[in-house]
Amino acid sequence: MNYNTIIYRIAHGIGLAILALVMCLTATGGAAATPTHRVAPRAPSAGLTDPKELEAFLDDLLARQLAERHIPGASLAVVKDGQLFFAKGYGYANLEQRTPLVADQTLVRVGSIAKPFTWTAVLQLVEQGKLDLNADVNTYLADFKIPATYPAPITLAHLLTHTAGFEDRGLGLTVFRPDDLEPPGTYLADAMPARVFPPGTVTAYSNYGATLAGYIVERVSHQPFEQYVQQHILEPLDMRHSTFAQQLPSDLAAHLAVSYAYDEMYHAKPFEYFQIAPAGGLSATATDIAQFMIAQLQNGRLGAARIIQAATVTHMH
After folding, report:
1. Domain locations in the chain as residue ranges
2. DSSP secondary-structure letter at 272?
3. How far apart are CA 50 and CA 47, in angstroms?
4. How far apart are CA 316 and CA 120, in angstroms?
5. Which residue among 38, 51, 240, 305 is least packed, with the fewest CB closer than 10 Å?
6. Which ranges in 69-171 belong to alpha helices (H)?
7. Where are the alpha helices (DSSP H) in the chain?
């Protein structure tokens, strides 16, 4: 099981658990009943106010889930009212060295959490008038073109909403040696999936579509995708322990969690290089992701930094 799978499973379980916890904390208690007398209105609940209360709940939950699902480690961050409310690492980043997983230091591969960063980059360029969400994506491509399988063209709006109509494939998305990575344009041309639905008619998850959107960011900005995101999203949000670089800088690589497969015992897996980097190639800490989450929840702003306009965030969401 690698960290992409881990993050999804933990996030899914934690999401349901926190929802249940919040419901318990805000409920009046007992079974619902019809009151026989007038009840004075209650002041709105402030929800969770004590991080220690959440920690006690999560410590028990995470201990059980990591053991039951054979997960070596997990990293968690919770935000509330525009601030980091709670963050903690559980288990190990490296089982052989018994290295603890630390929420604000250990980088993990965050999988498809990378996609909202790509969507944000696209919309930044839309704000600047360099991209049009409703233009044919072929407008921004030179070295290859999307075939005109259907009368209607594929647009960036289709890519960002997974409605381009591409078939999906899971093979060839990662390689284990950096020398085996194809340039983005070459990969997108060679691995182009068939168009199986007219655009805008069917929602079908597409890593290819997200990668194509990232490549368009690269072409229009005249910067490699990872450099664009670093300069225009990660640095303004003070995400100093995050990168889309496929070969991590040495200071970050030293804090990257090892991925493991489990078959009666744990087996360390080599670093995976993503051909689809804009769709899943981000490495980050939990607390860095919290910075991005706060900016999204506060309409594009984190402290004095603004990465995108409020109206654009509303449209994006």
Report:
1. 3-17+50-110+238-304, 116-230
2. P
3. 9
4. 8
5. 38
6. 114-127, 156-160
7. 3-26, 51-68, 114-127, 156-160, 184-190, 207-221, 225-229, 250-253, 277-280, 286-297, 310-316
Q: What is the pTM of this model?
A: 0.85
Residue 41 has pLDDT above 60, yes or no: no
Question: What's the CATH fold of domain 116-230?
Answer: Beta-lactamase (3.40.710)
* Per-residue CA distances from 219 to 122, 141, 143, 308 (Å): 11, 8, 11, 20
Rounded Cα distance between 155 and 280, Å, is 21
- 116-230 has the same fold as 3-17+50-110+238-304: yes
Residues in the chain: 317
Angle at 33 between CA 28 and CA 34, to 5 degrees: 120
pLDDT at 19: 32
The dihedral of CA 178, 180, 183, 184: what is its sign? negative
Structure tokens at 81: 């009212």
Q: Looking at the domain 3-17+50-110+238-304, which fold is it?
A: Beta-lactamase (3.40.710)
